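Page 47, continued from p. 46.
Same chain as before, 233 aa.
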Amino acid sequence: MIPQTPYIYEYPRPAVTTDCVIFGFDEGELKVLLIERGIEPYLGKWALPGGFLNMDEDAETCSRRILQKETGLDNIFMEQLYTFSSVERDPRYRVISIAHFALVRKSDYNAMAGLDTTTVRWFDLSEVPELAFDHKAILDMAKDRLRGKIKYQPIGFELLPERFTMPDLHRLYETILQESLDRRNFRKKMLSFNILVDTGEVQRGAQNRAPKLYCFDKQKYDELTQKGFYFEL
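Result:
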């Protein structure tokens, strides 16, 4: 509990929440994880995972706690997105939301419904239903942030399996950027960064010529970044 001091003044205090846009990538499609609300307001409506900030935690701690409580997800890549503070954004009372976005390897996590949640489900971005509160605006901003950031920071590897093929990586970038990328130039550019490791293995079960499997060398990337390396697609 925060100790009382003579410098606490009487004025209206809004509630603070966190909401999180969780992106995953599967079968060539970018997906978002939504929850079906089990309480009012918007009972039965789809929404982003979120909840109220406790007095003894910061926004990221709150987001991670809520994700664990509502979806069972933890230890995932997360960044703060934006603060949403429109006066009418919540029908209950004045609520400010500090939104985050997260990237997960979908195959590594088994999302499941938790407290105050009826269902947890992955949706293709092209099939997202009507969302509660102002969560469509939050999702739209997160998509724009991801689309911009993936060009100058290799966060896309957070969405792929630990070992992936160059076609997998190419498909991921085309999906997020919503544009066609020349395969040969993309491959040449990615390999020129020297942050991909050839595992010496190939994809099993592939038809015709099996593509090589690569992994992302985060340690090498961090070392290069300290020397002034700039990732730019």
